[in-house]
Design brief:
Length: about 350
């Protein structure tokens, strides 16, 4: 094992994460989504939405990497819980890694819609992430000597983690100064249109060989600091209108996962009930109101100011900047998604059950 892998294992032990010894529980993990999962895909893009600078990564072994938090993302923790001894590399920098074990396509500010987040600059929307996945499948096929049937059999056993949709609301629908979505659709109509597009992308991914899906529901977006500041009323702790929109989307996404489970009988789609999980995470329900206190000093864009020292005790804070959770909150979400203490958290099963099928 190389020095980098050893450093990573030491870090996992210090983080209090269970290390699974042996082969990973799935042959590969593919990650799709936005800044909640991005691990460096935005670093070289022309965009204001980047996190490859201090204080991001202050608790990560390699420092700032493009992750929008102080340490690990939810997808990172799930990667470890699945038994991988390394993190899944970003598509923008997969050279030197064994891509047969997976690739991370997630992009900060990206959404289901093409135009989402584009006022900040370039990003890799969900459709483009699927196109990048096709490139990776082609590369994997070359690596195994062009044996397509072997690749297809492998992909069926892989896990596909998809966490996307937040930006379609906070960086599209609820930004009327940049987008006209709210003029064309009611919140429920917009959510329905989003889920319709989402469904098309998931079916396209299924045609590419995917059969084990984790579909992550949206946070109660009205309770993140930026939305409270921007859309909150009468000193409320959450922006009701934004929360209602994210709830409607989640209801439609849960219904979609049930529909897809019926439509594709040999595939499995998990819906992760993020808001219900959040209601049982201490940092998100602290009596002093830490859910609206960010750990780092933020700029006008809601992200950490470069080179500013963050809070010292990051384990007491729910949010690192105005949008993104701290590592300890990400750990809770990953653990609850992987091995759910409640049947209501992950439907119809949790990730640990899914990977055993």
């Amino acid at each position: 094992m190389g020095c980098e892998s050893k450093l990573w294992l030491v870090f996992l032990l210090m983080s209090g994460v269970t290390i699974v010894v042996g082969e990973p529980q799935v042959p590969c993990l593919f990650i799709f989504g936005d800044s909640l999962s991005d691990s460096g895909n935005n670093n070289k893009l022309s965009t204001d939405c980047k996190a490859n600078y201090f204080p991001y990564g202050i608790d990560f072994p390699d420092g700032p990497t493009g992750r929008y938090t102080n340490g690990l993302t939810i997808a990172d923790f799930i990667t470890q819980l699945l038994g991988f001894d390394h993190l899944i590399p970003p598509y923008a920098n997969y050279g030197g890694y064994d891509i047969k074990e997976g690739v991370n396509y997630a992009s900060g500010s990206a959404g289901i819609r093409y135009d989402t987040g584009k006022h900040l600059g370039d990003n890799v929307e969900l459709e483009k992430q699927l196109q990048n996945h096709k490139v990776i499948i082609s590369e994997i096929t070359k690596q195994v000597g062009g044996r397509v049937e072997n690749v297809e059999e492998r992909l069926k056993k892989c896990l596909y983690y998809v966490n996307v949709g937040s930006n379609d609301f906070i960086n599209n629908y609820f930004l009327p100064q940049h987008y006209r979505s709210s003029e064309k659709y009611s919140p429920e109509e917009f959510g329905a249109e989003l889920v319709k597009q989402y469904s098309q992308h998931l079916k396209a991914l299924h045609q590419l060989g995917a059969s084990k899906f984790v579909l992550v529901g949206l946070h109660l977006l009205g309770c993140i600091p930026h939305e409270i500041i921007t859309h909150g009323k009468n000193h409320s702790l959450c922006a009701t209108e934004v929360n209602n929109a994210s709830r409607m989307f989640n209801n439609k996404l849960e219904a979609l996962s049930q529909q897809l489970n019926k439509q594709f009988s040999h595939s499995n789609f998990i819906y992760v009930n993020t808001p219900l999980m959040a209601s049982h995470i201490p940092q998100l329900n602290h009596p002093r109101g830490n859910q609206i206190v960010t750990c780092c000093e933020v700029g006008s864009n809601g992200q950490c100011k470069e080179e500013h020292e963050p809070c010292r005790d990051r384990s007491l804070h729910a949010f690192f900047d105005d949008f993104h959770p701290t590592e300890i909150v990400n750990r809770f979400f990953a653990r609850y998604s992987y091995h759910s203490p409640s049947k209501s958290y992950t439907l119809p099963m949790d990730i640990s059950q899914l990977v055993r099928l």
